[in-house]
Each structure stands twice: as structure tokens, then as C-alpha cells.
């Protein structure tokens, strides 16, 4: 008798090909790294897009993290208890590290050549998306995990490696910041419509 292969159905839901109505608990129970990547890649790309603000940086972030984790998959799978949370935490940490490195100013003697035209991001002028981009990386990660991925405070704390109190305070600060920025955007939008 052969083992039933897991089949990804969307989100984080798994069913076995032998029993299509019975969902497996989580992709974290997958032993094979390839199966884990296949199952979680769409969600990781969405999470990365929300963290970085564009799909290209999201793909780079996911690839970088999965390359590092792939070489240590046995350890991650056996010791962490929840590989998906470990990957999300690694992505958030890698994004914060990249953000810290790139925000430093680099002075150059010559101006770089202009780049070819890149199509605009469809969310570029969306007020909520612009306001979300202005949040510090940790606050943005908390908001994305909570409202985009639908994780609980405990799951977010586990994914980011912080306490639930930190998750609550970061979410509160982020919501306050977003409210003020969206209120200002609404007022400015009404002022430009009147003129």
C-alpha cells in the first residue's frame, strides 16, 4: 500500500489524495522540503509582497530565506515545531535587516544611468497601501500577519519571535499611525476636489 500524497488546495489547507475530504493539520507536518515549499509558496509570496511593498522584492526575500532554510531543513522541521512560523519570522527578520542596510545613504561621485521605464504598481496611489508602506518594518509585519494573513496574536508572536504584549503594542501604534495618515489623506483629497 502506498502513502497518500498531500495535495495543496489553497491557503494553508491540505488534503490527502486518498481522502479528499479530510484535511491534514498543517504544512508543518510535511517532512520533504520540496512539498513544504510547494504548499506554502503562494502565501509566503503574499506575505513578502505586503512586507516589502512590491512583488519583485517579495520574490527575492522569499527566495533568500528559503535558500537558507533549505540547507537546514531537517533541523528546522524537527526542532522548531512550526516550520511555517519559523519561515515567516525569518522573512520578517531578513526584511528588517535589508531595510536597515538600504536606508543608509550612499554617496557616489557620478550619478547612475537612468533605468528603463518600469510599469507602475497598481496599488501605488492607494491611500491605505501608501500609509502601510510608511510604517516601521515590525509594525508593518504585525499588521500584515494580523489583517492580511489572519493570524492570531499568539501566532504572530511566534512568527516574529516576540511577546504577545509586543504584538499588541506594535498593532496599536500602527493602527493609530494609519488612522492619522488616512484622515490627513482624506482631508487633502476633499480639499483638492473642492478646488
Largest sheet: 3 strands, antiparallel
Q: How are the strands of the biggest sheet laid out side by side? A: 1-2-3
Low-pLDDT residue spans: 1-28
Mean pLDDT over the residues = 77
The rounded Rg comes to: 20 Å
**End-to-end distance:** 74 Å
Order of helices and strands: EEEHHHHHHHH
Secondary structural class: mainly alpha
In what range is the share of β-strand residues?
5-15%
Number of helices: 8
* Overall morphology: globular
Helix percent band: 55-70%
Please outline what is shown here.
The N terminus is likely disordered.
Account of the protein in words:
This protein has 195 residues and is mostly helical. The chain folds into two domains: 1-12 and 28-102, no CATH class; 126-195, Winged helix-like DNA-binding domain superfamily/Winged helix DNA-binding domain (Arc Repressor Mutant, subunit A, Orthogonal Bundle), CATH 1.10.10.10. 62% of the residues lie in helices and 6% in strands. It has eight helices and three strands. It has helices at residues 33-52, 55-70, 73-79, 83-102, 127-133, 137-148, 153-160, 164-194; strands at residues 6-10, 13-16, 23-24. The chain has a three-stranded antiparallel beta sheet, covered by helices on one side. A hairpin with a 6-residue loop joins strand 2 (13-16) and strand 3 (23-24). Helix 1 runs parallel beside helix 4 (83-102). The longest helix has 31 residues, at 164-194. The chain is globular, with a radius of gyration of 20 Å. The model is unreliable at 1-28 (pLDDT under 50).
Amino acid at each position: 500500500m502506498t502513502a497518500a500524497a498531500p495535495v495543496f488546495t489553497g491557503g494553508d489547507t491540505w488534503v490527502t489524495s486518498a481522502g479528499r475530504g479530510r484535511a491534514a493539520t498543517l504544512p508543518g507536518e510535511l517532512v520533504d522540503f520540496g512539498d513544504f515549499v510547494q504548499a506554502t509558496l503562494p502565501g509566503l509570496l503574499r506575505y513578502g509582497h505586503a512586507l516589502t511593498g512590491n512583488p519583485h522584492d517579495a520574490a527575492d526575500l522569499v527566495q533568500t530565506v528559503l535558500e537558507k532554510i533549505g540547507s537546514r531543513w531537517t533541523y528546522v522541521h524537527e526542532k522548531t515545531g512550526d516550520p511555517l512560523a519559523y519561515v515567516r519570522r525569518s522573512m520578517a527578520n531578513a526584511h528588517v535587516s535589508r531595510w536597515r542596510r538600504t536606508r543608509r545613504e550612499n554617496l557616489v561621485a557620478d550619478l547612475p544611468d537612468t533605468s528603463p521605464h518600469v510599469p507602475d504598481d497598481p496599488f501605488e496611489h492607494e491611500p491605505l497601501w501608501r500609509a502601510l508602506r510608511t510604517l516601521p518594518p515590525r509594525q508593518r509585519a504585525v499588521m500584515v500577519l494580523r489583517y492580511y494573513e489572519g493570524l492570531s496574536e499568539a501566532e504572530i508572536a511566534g512568527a516574529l519571535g516576540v511577546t504577545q504584549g509586543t504584538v499588541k503594542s506594535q498593532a496599536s501604534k500602527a493602527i493609530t499611525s494609519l488612522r492619522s495618515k488616512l484622515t490627513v489623506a482624506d482631508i487633502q483629497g476633499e480639499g483638492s476636489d473642492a478646488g
